[in-house]
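Hey, I was hoping to borrow your eyes for a little while. No rush at all, and the record is pasted right below:
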Amino acid sequence: MAAPGLEKFENLLDKIHRSVAICNSLRHEKEQLEGDLQKLTLDLAAEKTDNEKLKSQIEFLLEEREAMKLKVEGILDAITMLELEADSVKK
């Protein structure tokens, strides 16, 4: 049987080894998480850029739609005027 002082030392040494293993594991996990965070940060920046491009496209399309709407209304008004003129000529 080992001396009580030697057993305590071996227990302490075992705890130190386990603590070092836990620290190494935590350091590795921290590095992975930092890498994940960096990737996600880049992905978020790219998504924001895409979002801004899409907003610009939507604004452009809405303006274009409004311009087309005004043109169609102008054409309809012109047709209405022609119909009124045609009716007045028939009378």
